[in-house]
Amino acid sequence: MSIDLTIFKQIEASMEEESSRKDEIYSCVRDYEKTCRYITAVLNRVHSASSDEVPEIAREALGKFGEVKQHLANLSKIVPHQQFYKYSDHWSRSVQKSLFLAAFAIYLSSEKLITLEQVEELHGVKLNLNNDLQDFHITVEDFLHSFVTLTDELSRLAVNSVTAGDYNRPLKISKFVKELYTGFQLLNLKNDSLRKRFDAIKYHIKKIEEVVYDVSLRKLSGSTDELVE
């Protein structure tokens, strides 16, 4: 035989290595998603909770982020140096989910927007603000996607808060989401998916405003001064 088949053996070894690596990634992502589902279940309780119960629910959710940090650490060990973008699609949605859950829990505990430092502390991974990281990181796009999801969840909470008898929360949510929307307007979004989702924030705001209008019409909320505080 005149053909040297060594190259095919090398290709086979490379393909087996790649397949094994993807299997490891899938396994880590499954565990990651399982933790996210648990945190989601915890945070979903706020939609039927009293205002006094909300901080404890937020603390319970934030307490599970040690597991999130470990899942991401496991993924970072699997991905070869400078090959982040080759595999990032496998976990991007899971990262967006946990970023949203972190932002939601922080809002519930403080009524403030999550900071970059809190994101990195809860996930144990750097946020790639300057697009200069080649190793494992959180992308700006995933970070911004989580904020859009946050506005959707807060619009849902505004409705359910009234049902639970918390008439002041919708006004606070309205102020927060409008400020977040203003922040988005400062950005020149080039990502098509993100730009389309950004447009949805306007509908979330409209939904919240309808709740606020109804609460105000019925004179169920406290004074404006109390809400600003």
Automatic annotation (TrEMBL):
Species assigned in the record: Rhizophagus clarus
Taxonomic lineage of the native organism: Eukaryota, Fungi, Fungi incertae sedis, Mucoromycota, Glomeromycotina
Subcellular location, record wording: Cytoplasm; Nucleus
Function: Exhibits both single-stranded and double-stranded endoribonuclease activity. May act as an activator of RNA-induced silencing complex (RISC) by facilitating endonucleolytic cleavage of the siRNA passenger strand. DNA-binding protein that specifically recognizes consensus sequences at the breakpoint junctions in chromosomal translocations, mostly involving immunoglobulin (Ig)/T-cell receptor gene segments. Seems to recognize single-stranded DNA ends generated by staggered breaks occurring at recombination hot spots.
GO MF: endonuclease activity; hydrolase activity; RNA binding; sequence-specific DNA binding; single-stranded DNA binding
Parts forming coiled coils: none
InterPro entries the record matches: Translin, Translin_C, Translin_fam, Translin_N, Translin_sf
Keywords from the UniProt entry: Cytoplasm, DNA-binding, Endonuclease, Hydrolase, Nuclease, Nucleus, RNA-binding
Protein name: Translin
Entry's Gene Ontology BP terms: RNA metabolic process
Any single Pfam family the record assigns to this protein: Translin
One GO location term (cellular component): nucleus
Assembly description: Ring-shaped heterooctamer of six TSN and two TSNAX subunits, DNA/RNA binding occurs inside the ring.
Assigned protein family: Belongs to the translin family.
Domain of life of the native organism: Eukaryota
